[in-house]
């Protein structure tokens, strides 16, 4: 083995991982993710990088006498969106989270 050879290999691996990480982040930014609550009565759409893009509420759940249920459904849909976003991020970036093989 040449002196410094292993350091060069390590630097090449770091560079490759950085490129893979950047590509995964760019892919997440354009990936559409949905979160739902109430069996689809409230749907929140966002991107894999955490940006909320839209909220859709079925008119059936809009009751001026029961605003709390609608608020709970929106919170539930946002929580579901966050869970789904985390799952997609883990899927796309999981192999990169393992670090360098030593």
Structural commentary:
Binds to DNA and alters its conformation. May be involved in regulation of gene expression, nucleoid organization and DNA protection. Belongs to the YbaB/EbfC family. This protein has 102 residues and is α+β, with helices and mostly antiparallel strands. It has a domain at 28-96: Nucleoid-associated protein YbaB-like domain (Ybab, Chain: A), CATH 3.30.1310. Helix content is 55%, strand content 18%. The protein has two helices and three strands; from the N terminus they run H-E-E-E-H. The chain has a three-stranded antiparallel β-sheet with strand order 1-2-3. A hairpin with a 4-residue loop joins strand 1 and strand 2. Helix 1 (5-29) runs antiparallel to helix 2 (67-97). The longest helix has 31 residues, at 67-97. It is rod-shaped, with a radius of gyration of 21 Å. The mean pLDDT is 87.
């Amino acid at each position: 083995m040449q002196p410094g050879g292993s350091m060069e290999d390590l630097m090449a691996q770091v560079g490759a991982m950085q490129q893979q990480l950047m590509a995964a982040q760019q892919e997440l930014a354009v990936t559409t993710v949905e979160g739902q609550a109430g069996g689809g009565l409230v749907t929140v759409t966002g991107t894999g990088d955490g940006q909320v893009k839209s909220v859709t509420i079925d008119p059936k759940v809009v009751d001026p006498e029961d605003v709390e249920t609608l608020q709970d459904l929106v919170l539930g849909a946002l929580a579901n969106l966050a869970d789904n976003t985390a799952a997609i991020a883990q899927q796309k970036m999981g192999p990169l989270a393992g670090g360098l093989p030593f």
